[in-house]
Amino acid sequence: MHHLIYRSKGGSDHPSNLELIHTTCHRQVHAGDRKHDTHRQPQASLSRMRG
C-alpha cells in the first residue's frame, strides 16, 4: 500500500490517499529510482476500488 501524500508530509491513511502498488515498484519509488507521477502505469486507487 502506498500513500500518495506521504504520512511524514501530513498524509493520512484515508482510502483516497492510498493506492495499490507492486512491492518492487513501491521500494523504487521510495528509493528515488522511480518518480511517483511518471514512468509507470496508472494504478487503481483504493477509494476507486471500494466504489
UniProtKB/TrEMBL annotation:
Keywords: Endonuclease, Hydrolase, Nuclease. Residues 41-51 have a biased composition (Polar residues). Residues 1-31 form the HNH domain. CDD domains: HNHc. InterPro entries: HNH, HNH_nuc. The keyword Disulfide bond does not apply. One of its GO terms (molecular function) is endonuclease activity. Residues 28-51 are annotated as: Disordered. Residues 30-40 have a biased composition (Basic and acidic residues). This is HNH endonuclease. The lineage of its organism: Bacteria, Bacillati, Actinomycetota, Actinomycetes, Kitasatosporales.
